[in-house]
Amino acid sequence: MERLDKIISSQGKYSRSEVKKLVRAGLVTLNGEKVKSADVKADAERDTITVDGEAVSYRKHIYIMLNKPKGVVSATDDAVHKTVIDLVPPALYRQGLFPAGRLDGDTTGFVLITDDGDFAHRILSPKNHIIKTYHATLDHTLSAEDIIAFTEGIDLRDGTLCLEAQVKMLSENPPVAEVKIHEGKYHQVKRMFAALGNRVTELKRVKMGGLDLDERLKEGECREITAEELEIIQNR
Ligand code: URA
């Protein structure tokens, strides 16, 4: 059981002090009864709560898919740049959101934003690292030897050895490759191609685990990830 004001404010729409005001105005009900005090205890999963006539559909955590544009940083706050959290619309916003994994400032595509630290740990820990799929526009097309080098594990120029990865060309003009990696080293995709004497000019993450970036999302747009889709992410 938790305080009612805490339960309602955890869902993002109202702050704790707003909930107190709404209670005083007689606009909050618990199991059909008007609530007299914001510190009354409730069971978030079982009780029926309404605010201003609207049912509060309680979710312990939220999972958001963002199509990240260039120039936005994968951080929770930044003194200079817009962050991925700044792009979360008010209807999905709540305290404690963070990006589960980072993309470079100039990389676009799928960023998962959540307030569930355990889930983020599960998908990012080296042991379970889910496959992430990128489309990389290159300086020049890949040779057969380059493709073999990816499958054998590329040695980055500083001696770091990458796990095996899959790569295939999607188009030749411009040269665009699809790359699937199982880990998340700093600038990994760009450095893998650099180690082969190539250069990534555009990079987009198009898939996390088994879940594709929703192509209906324009750059900068977000939507909530469903429970079924969360499972798909974890199906590497
Ligand atoms: N690899 C990179 O080089 N950059 C990214 O943003 C993600 C993967």
Describe the protein.
The protein is an alpha+beta fold and 236 residues long. The chain has 3 domains: 2-55, Roll (Structural Genomics Hypothetical 15.5 Kd Protein In mrcA-pckA Intergenic Region, Chain A); 63-125 and 215-233, 2-Layer Sandwich (Alpha-Beta Plaits); 132-208, 2-Layer Sandwich (Alpha-Beta Plaits), CATH 3.30.70. The protein is built from 6 helices and 15 strands. It has helices at residues 4-10, 16-24, 117-124, 144-152, 188-195, 227-234; strands at residues 2-3, 28-30, 33-34, 41-42, 49-51, 54-55, 63-68, 98-99, 107-114, 132-138, 166-172, 175-181, 200-208, 211-212, 222-224. The strands form 3 sheets. Strands 7, 8, 9, 10, 11, 12, 13, 14 and 15 form a 9-stranded mixed beta sheet that branches. A 4-stranded antiparallel beta sheet has the order 3-2-5-6. A two-stranded antiparallel ribbon has the order 1-4. Helix 1 packs across helix 2. The chain is elongated. The protein starts with a strand and ends with a helix. The model has no long low-confidence stretch (mean pLDDT 94). Uracil binds at residues 103-104, 107, 187-190, 203.
Q: How would you characterize the largest beta sheet?
A: 9 strands, mixed
Which stretches are low in confidence, meaning pLDDT under 50 for 5 or more residues running? Answer: none
Helix/strand structural class: alpha+beta
Would you report the number of β strands? 15
Distance N terminus to C terminus?
36 Å
SSE ordering: EHHEEEEEEEEHEHEEHEEEH
The 3D shape can be described as: elongated
Q: Quote the average pLDDT.
A: 94
CATH A-level architecture of the largest domain: 2-Layer Sandwich
Q: What is the class of the largest domain in the CATH system?
A: Alpha Beta
Beta-strand content estimate: 25-35%
Oligomer: single chain
